[in-house]
Specification:
2 domains; 4 helices; alpha+beta; elongated; 4-stranded antiparallel beta sheet; about 30% helix
Length: about 190
């Protein structure tokens, strides 16, 4: 489970922190956390994958600690049991235990058996000899797998279209979360 933070209002401002403060960082007066409406802001990052989804993590390190805007990301896809399938210079592998990643549900009506068969067939085509950082990579593996699903095939032909349709919203939310999280970690709070 990834660390979440909380949000509450005081001095007509929204304050974010890991725990309710007993002194307002704005007015420096006492705050009664029990009297404030405290909202928990859950982390968008998971340590356990969900079935039939796309997974996304930094190629190196962890989102909250290491990721910088523009750093390379690694993408995978899960089967109906939630096992991550990924493609890299070693070929297709499964069973890796990813930490702190985004799990993105792709809205399809595909049955579990069909989804798993698609992954199996795509995995057979993606051999380590074919791997290329730019042309035949983890993203190619995921979009090739999903291109077999008729209802979303049109979005899988182009990486930019696929990203905009399925990944952008989650990655923007993650970027905001990382920014606020790091600010809280550094200063103890974040105020808007």
């Amino acid at each position: 489970m990834q660390k979440s933070f909380i949000s509450y209002e005081h001095c007509e401002r929204r304050i974010f922190s890991f725990a309710a403060a007993y002194m307002c960082p704005i007015c420096h007066f006492s705050v009664n956390p029990a009297s404030e409406e405290v909202l928990e802001i859950p982390s968008p990052f998971l340590d356990k994958s969900e079935p039939m989804s796309v997974t996304l993590k930094p190629t190196d390190g962890l989102f909250l600690r290491d990721y910088k805007n523009g750093s390379d990301l690694h993408i995978g896809i899960t089967n109906s049991k939630g096992e991550i399938f990924e493609f890299d210079s070693r070929g297709v592998s499964t069973g890796a235990c990813w930490k702190q990643f985004l799990n993105i549900q792709i809205p399809v009506s595909t049955k579990k058996e069909e989804w798993d068969l698609i992954l199996e067939k795509t995995s057979e085509k993606f051999k380590h000899e074919r791997y290329d950082d730019s042309l035949m990579n983890c993203f190619s593996f995921v979009t090739s797998s999903l291109a077999s699903i008729e209802e979303i095939a049109e979005f899988c032909k182009d990486k930019a279209v696929f990203s905009e349709k399925f990944l952008t919203e989650s990655t923007k939310r993650a970027a905001k979360y990382i920014s606020v999280y790091r600010h809280i970690e550094k200063y103890g709070f974040y105020i808007i």
